[in-house]
C-alpha cells in the first residue's frame, strides 16, 4: 500500500481549538508522519511512548460537544442492560435531507466528484456504522439506491484518489483517511 505523508501547507490558526491543536502537532513533527499514524495519534490509539505528546485528549467528547453546540447532534441516554450510555443522535433534519439529496437527486455520477462536505459525512457515517441513521425514512427503492451509491464510494481506489487529489480543495486528505479506514 501507498504511504501518504501529511505535509502542513499553513499553520494559520483557524479559531477551532481542536483543529489548531492538531495543526501545532503537525507543525512540530519531524519527519512528517503518514495518514494512518496521525489517525492513531490524534485519536489516542497509539501505544508508542515517544509519540504520546502528540495525542489529543478527549477527541470524541470534544467533537460531540461541538456538534451538539452547533445543533447537528443532540445528547441522549440509552440504557443497555445495567449501563446508561450517552449517545449523540443526529438532530439536524436539514443535514439528513442534504445527505439524502446528495445521494439521490444530486449524485454526480462518480464519487470523486462529490462535494467535500458530503464526502466527509459519508466517510464518517460509513466508518462509524451510522449510515442507517442518515438514510432513515426512505422508501425501500430509494434506500437501496442510496446504499448502492455509498458502496460505490467505498469501492473507489481511495489511495489513487488521494494521490490524484480527486476533487481538489483538501479532498486528498479525505481520500487518504478513507484509504486507511478501508485498509
From TrEMBL:
One of its GO terms (cellular component) is trans-Golgi network. Its main location: Golgi. It comes from the Eukaryota. The keyword Membrane applies. GO terms for biological process: Golgi organization; Golgi to plasma membrane protein transport; Golgi vesicle budding; retrograde vesicle-mediated transport, Golgi to endoplasmic reticulum. GO terms for molecular function: phosphatidylinositol-4-phosphate binding. The keyword Membrane applies. Keywords: Golgi apparatus, Lipid-binding, Membrane. It holds the Pfam family GPP34. It is found in: Golgi apparatus, Golgi stack membrane; Golgi apparatus, trans-Golgi network membrane. It is a peripheral membrane protein. Belongs to the GOLPH3/VPS74 family. This is GLP3L protein. The gene is Golph3l.
